[in-house]
Amino acid sequence: MEEQHAVGLWREETVKTDEIFKGKMISLQVDTVTLEDGRTATREIVKHPGAAAVMALLDGKLLVVEQFRKPLEKFQIEIPAGKLDPGEDPMTAAARELEEETGYRSNDLKLLSAFYTSPGFADEKLYVYFTDQVELGIQNPDEDEDLKVDAITIEQAEQYIQQGRISDAKTILAVYAWKLYILTGQI
C-alpha cells in the first residue's frame, strides 16, 4: 500500500543510520535525515518488534495483571500483553500472552484497535484484541515476570485510572472500549 501523506509536506530522507544499542526487546538508532531546505537533522529512533494485548472479559469483569514496571518505579495494573516474536501474527501473540499471563485462553479474539505507541521516537505498533469468550488454561509467565492476576469491575477500573494504578494507553483504551461495550453491547 502506498504511503498516504498531506500535500505539501516534506518526507525526510535518511542519509545515515548509526546503531547505538541492540537489546533483546529494543534497539536504538540515530538517523541523519535531510530536511526540505537541504539542512540535515538527527532523529533518535527506538525500533521495537511490535506487541499484542487482550481486553478479556470473564463473567463481566476485566482480566488484568499487576506487575512492577521498572521504568516507572511503580506497580501497574494492565491488560495482558507482550511483544511479538519475529514474524509472529499479532492475534497468535495476543492469545499466547493471555494464557501465559492470566491462565485463561480464548479462541475468539477480535481486533479492537492497532496503534503506534509513541510515533515521535518509536516504531512500536500495538494490537489490542477483545474477547468475552474465555476458558481456563494454564498460566505460564516468563521466568522474569512476577504477576498478580485479577478480574476487576468497571468501577474498579475507573478508580484505578483515577489513582494512577492504571496509566498505560492500552489499558485505558480497553477500559473506555469496555464502557462502550456495556452501553451498546458492541465493541
Give me some keywords for this one.
187 residues, alpha+beta, Nucleoside Triphosphate Pyrophosphohydrolase, 2 domains, seven-stranded mixed sheet, 3 helices, 12 strands, elongated
Walk me through the structure.
By secondary structure, the chain is of the alpha+beta class. The chain folds into 2 domains: 13-47; 51-184, Nucleoside Triphosphate Pyrophosphohydrolase. 21% of the residues lie in helices and 40% in strands. The protein has 3 helices and 12 strands, in the order βββββββαβββββαα. The strands form 3 sheets. Strands 4, 5, 6, 7, 9, 10 and 12 form a 7-stranded mixed β-sheet that branches. β2 (27-34) and β3 form a beta hairpin. The longest helix is centred in the last third of the chain and has 16 residues, at 169-184. The protein is elongated, with a radius of gyration of 19 Å.
Q: What does the radius of gyration come to?
A: 19 Å
Helix content: 10-25%
Q: What is the typical, i.e. mean, pLDDT?
A: 94
CATH fold annotation of the largest domain? Nucleoside Triphosphate Pyrophosphohydrolase
> What would CATH call the architecture of the largest domain?
Alpha-Beta Complex
- How many individual helices? 3
CATH class term of the largest domain = Alpha Beta
List the helices and strands and how they pair.
Layout: E1 13-22, E2 27-34, E3 40-47, E4 51-58, E5 61-69, E6 74-78, E7 81-83, H1 90-102, E8 104-105, E9 110-116, E10 125-131, E11 135-136, E12 148-152, H2 154-163, H3 169-184
Parallel strand pairs: 4-10
Antiparallel strand pairs: 1-2, 2-3, 4-5, 4-7, 5-6, 5-12, 8-11, 9-10
Helix pairs in contact: 2-3
